[in-house]
Amino acid sequence: MKAFVLKEPGVVGWADVPDPVLTPYGAILKPIAVAPCSSDVHTVFGGGSRKAPNLVLGHECVAKVLEVGELVQDFKPGEIVAVPAITPNWRDRGIQECNFKHASAPFSGHQLGRTQPGVFSERFLIPDADTTLAKIPEGVSLEQALMCVDVVTTGFTGAENANIKFGDTVVVMGIGPIGLMAVAGAKLSGASRILAVGSRPKCVDMAYRFGATEVLSYKNGDIVAQVMERTNGLGADSVIICGGNDEVFAQAIDMVRYGIGTVSNVNYFGGTGNLPFPKFSGGRGMAGKTIHTELACGGRVRIERMLSMVKYGRIEPECLVTHKLSGIDNVEKALYLMKEKPADLIKVMVTLEE
Asked: What is the domain extent for residue 123?
């Protein structure tokens, strides 16, 4: 079957790959809508761990169920479902230790397009349908469901791990699609003041729409100084890192409060080496600042909760989709759009023929 693959580092293309083989608990699906992600860009162009030859890319998808294994109970052929980007092996021993994302190995929950074939193909396998696939509520659109499988859950993960309390001041660093959903998550968590950091006009407008009270730009000077000035030298209660280079990690520590502040990171820092830790604002190791680094939450229950937030009007993630393409052949174009990031882009959706 036809699939969009990583041929070698930095080189993508189309290939004829084996058909998926149905498993007793699994389902074979046909993608209906997909969205390339910044993580796909990192996988292709950013190095990292070695990948299998002709690895099928992609992990953001809404799909039609084609076949189910004999032990599947809750899904049947013909259903349109949301496919979580994070698909842990829920039968792994480490799951009983609540290690949902790294149960058997680092990043074992992030399988699609990484350690198993992804969704940019004519068909793909989800090994455990009942624990992974998510039912889409009536009234939730294709765009809304597609944004929930990764972007919404990742941004909300950043907010959840930021220990936000009612009335808190929160900084969100980076207002791409993940950061915008972190802004929305911070607002829903009770933050009274949300300082978003970014400069692309389309994203700035969207940040205000999702709940930012102010948007700060690196173009206007040192971002730490801007935050400290606006908080009377106290710093933010929480900082959520959703984008940026290695420097933002130290900046987050610089600008978060002593004693009770939390830095929550869902950003991908490519390459090797070390992230900087500032000794002074880190209290020389005794500042009482919490640092939480996390992969997005996934699985059926999580994504169905995100879809419920959409159904009942708590979030409107469909407005993140700024570009729409049609046909499986346009997946490659969509990937390069995410790499090049034109000024009017937030997310691109590719619809596939049924």
From this structure: 2-152+296-351
